[in-house]
Each structure stands twice: as structure tokens, then as C-alpha cells.
Amino acid sequence: xxxxxxxxxxxxxxxxxxxxxxxxxxxxxxxxxxxxxxxxxxxxxxxxxxxxxxxxxxxxxxxxxxxxxxxxxxxxxxxxxxxxxxxxxxxxxxxxxxxxxxxxxxxxxxxxxxxxxxxxxxxxxxxxxxxxxxxxxxxxxxxxxxxxxxxxxxxxxxxxxxxxxxxxxxxxxxxxxxxxxxxxxxxxxxxxxxxxxxxxxxxxxxxxxxxxxxxxxxxxxxxxx
Length: 225
Description:
The protein has helices spanning 2-10, 12-27, 186-189, and strands at residues 29-33, 47-52, 57-59, 66-69, 78-82, 89-96, 101-105, 108-111, 114-115, 117-120, 138-144, 147-153, 163-167, 172-176, 192-193, 197-209, 215-216. It is mainly beta. The chain has one domain (31-220): Umud Fragment, subunit A (Ribbon). The chain is globular and about 65 Å long. The termini are far apart. The model has no long low-confidence stretch (mean pLDDT 90).
């Protein structure tokens, strides 16, 4: 015991720092590496993102217990959440809010009776294609009322391109990946309860190209989403 007390006393500052970082990641902000292509072209494999854990709710650290509602998720937000299927942390886009009626018909979204519009995307984002996929990829700007996001569809790949209409229950959300034919989202795992949301993502902190020996992608450092 004396040796343990001496060890703790000698490393007090380090221990306080580690505990503080753990609490920070649990209650205030957390950071993740994007491991899959489900959010291309918006998020790329190798991106490091920071999730604001105080964007919507103040929670008891290390739990899903909500102490205080701070704001409500909006359609189009990119969020992190715990999958009700397997407990893994996922990052997707909020498409359906509580009470919304959502339908997808041959890739086209219908939100509360309004059909989304689509146009071919241009610029750098149009070149951010899913790696390791040889089939055709279409990069499209999808406009939902006043919000727009860029998505990828893969016409030659087997995928769930139609569902609904479904009504989003109170306190729950419908999530989709921007890489519509390469995403395991609410079409497969169901609606996401608010308490499972763990943060909102608005920027890429930095990015490393895993296909090029982890060389940095300077253009994505601090990129807004």
C-alpha cells in the first residue's frame, strides 16, 4: 500500500489529466476515425471527426441518461449514435424527425409528401468515390426542402432502394447514409431513439489517406460538412 500511495502521489497530475480526458470524451466531445464508406462522398475512410456531445443533450457521463435537453436534431444533421442492433457507434445523417412520414421510391426520398429533387454533383466532391468498388457510381445533390446533401448511388449493386411510407415515432429518428446503396442504416436497424444519439458532427478534424500510406489529405483538414 505505501508503494501504491507513493506511485499515485508521484503521478497525480497525469492521473487527473487522464480522468479529465475520459470525462471530456464521455460528456462533452469525442473523436472518431471513419472506418467505412457508408457516408461517402461526405465522409471518407481515414477522416478523423469530432462529435459535439452537448449538441442535443446533457447526459450523465458514461451513460445514456439525459439530464437536460439542449436542442433538437434537425433534418440533415450528421450525427453519431449507438446502433440498437449491435451496440457499435455509427455516423449517419438525420433524414426523418419525430412525426415525419418518410418514403423512398427507387432511390428518391419523399418527406411528408414532398419529393426530393436530384441533380448531378460537380466539383471536388464529385470525385470522392467509394474505394474498392468497380461498378458505376453516381454522385448527386439531393435537395430536401431547404436542405441539400450530396449522395452516392450505385445502380449496378443490389440494395434496398424503396421502403415505406413509415411514420417516425415520437422521440426517435430515421437515419440514412449518404452512400445510399452501401450503408446499413434505419432501413435495416430501425429508428434511433434520442437517448442513443452521442453527438453532432460538423467538421473533419484531419484526414489520412489509407490507400497512400496514410499520407495526409490537407484539403480536408478542418473541412466543414
